[in-house]
Amino acid sequence: MISALIAAPGSDNQETAIATWNLNDLSQPPVVTPSGDRMKFIGVTALKAGQILALGRQEWTGQLGGCGEGRTTGATATFVTQVYLTDREQTDFEQAFASNGRTIGVSRDTERCFELAGTASVAAFLPLDPDNVIIRRVNVGTLAASFYRYNLRTGQTRMMYRANGRTEISVIDPRTGDILVRNSLEPIEGNDYEARTFIRNETTGEFEIHDPLTYQLRARHTVAVVGRDEATGQYYVITDQFSDLAQVYAYDAVSRRYSDGPILAHPNYSVTNLILGRTPSNFNEVLGFRYSGPGGNDVYWIDPVMSATQTTLEDLFPTAGVSILDYTDGMDTVLFAVGSGAMPTVYYVYRDGHITLLGNSRPWIDPEDLADSTLIHYTARDGREIPGILSLPAGWEPSDGPLPTIIHPHGGPWARDGVGWDGSGWVPFLTSRGYAVLRPQYRGSEGWGLDHWRAGDAQWGLSMQDDKDDGAAWMVSQGFADPDRIAIFGYSYGGFAAIAAVVRDNSPYQCAIAGAGVSNLARIGTNWSENRVQRAVQGWTVTGMDPMQNTERANIPIMLFHGNRDVRVPLFHSVDFYNAVRGRVHAELLVVEDMPHSMPWYPRHQMETLPAIERFLTEDCGPGGL
């Protein structure tokens, strides 16, 4: 059984549906269920025992007094999110893993938060068990998580472990479902937390703290226990405690010692995860690892069968990247995806030497109209090497002359870009209109080493901003960019960067476009995240040059667009900045109805914002447009 989110038939790609294929007969059309009038499907996962997990969302407006960011920002517009279980025929949908117990002594605000976000999720799939999964369910009264073995055929649950409010489970034995490793966060001096790892003692059954796996959270080390070698009992730990890049070490829980050196590593990029076998013939064997390479989530296969399968598929699609998504025992059937910076993701099944197309994420786009993106590096003014993702119009040659250019910083800022397909659609949209696009991986970006990540702390609008400007200078020096036709466009933190560019002197940009951008550092820093730990760890880094304190210095045109259901970065950020600068520079504000901060967005959101972006660039960016 294969399940996917698709465009609802007859909706002209405006509505979603869930589809389920019978893996034994892919010649038959899938079973399709469209979204309802209000609740829209935004995700789906095939489980086991003929069951499907579907994620739905609908708009909701009301007081968010107890709900994370809504508690402090005053936001009132958000979404209700629900998880449903259904069967392969999609005949009935019921709320997944719901508890029927009553909650006494809980405020209405807290109840509302969990009504909006849900209380249960799948914690482990147990690949060899045909009926059961491990679920995580939050107690509304205590806010602590409990873990249960859940039978998908009968709906019966069995309690496995009850955590407290600061404890989470990190490793569950994929064969037995037993809990092996848990983590806790304990407050310490300096408004910091200590991240502690507890491993179950196989002799006593008790969880014991392991000091070599403990660190202070503000140091932002990676210490992730990601599995256990069944033969030796040693654990696999991904960590950057010994290197700027995260590497895989073996950890002996008896001697409490790491291996003398990494057992798996990439010379240039951090390892982000291990890939462990999940079929009977390769179960729990290390097949390969994922690493933060040019694509952002690249794979290196160690297992010869997986490597050979990858090579076979790459030979069939030599001009695009191939990702193995799932497979049956013996590799007789493989689900895989193909895509690149120029090619929207396409999904296929490979069986007995034959390929069956399942679906194309954007069938109306011709890859011949686009060009692939490439990873480049340039040097910032203080000597730091900055990675960047360069995207150019298809067919452009240096002899054609320099291009109008967009500097396009990512959000986060603790995030990064890759050379694959841009899910927002902004990069291919811009390059198809003749713009060169550079996505600087400025200091503070995650996934390029610990030092580069930490270097952005408290540098909003300062050295982080210099990195974008230095990227624009590099584009000019390499002959890609016309120095008189450069704009900056970003979303979320990238929107902050665009706003900051408006009030910085000697800007290399003719205009700025800010989507859901932060404009007021004083307000966002104290409200950073609904999670108190993330506020303590990241909130202090959100400082630097505050655009709202410098609006009198505005010197280039700006367009701001913002969703009215954005709880993460509330609408006031764009409204306040627009009101403060519109008398000084040309300024526009587009409020997008029902748009949340993060994807998935509705197609109508893109249909409203993309033409507005293009029109602003061509008509209002600088004296004559870009």
What's the quick description here?
With 626 residues, the chain is an alpha+beta fold.
Describe this structure in words.
The chain has about 625 residues and is of the alpha+beta class. The chain is built from 11 helices and 35 strands. The strands form 8 sheets. The chain has an 8-stranded mixed beta sheet with strand order 28-29-31-30-32-33-34-35, with helices on both faces. Strands 12, 13, 14, 15 and 16 form a 5-stranded antiparallel beta sheet that branches. The chain has a 4-stranded antiparallel beta sheet with strand order 4-5-6-7. β24 and β25 form a beta hairpin. The chain is globular, with a radius of gyration of 25 Å. The mean pLDDT is about 90.
Key descriptive features of the protein:
626 residues; alpha+beta; 11 helices
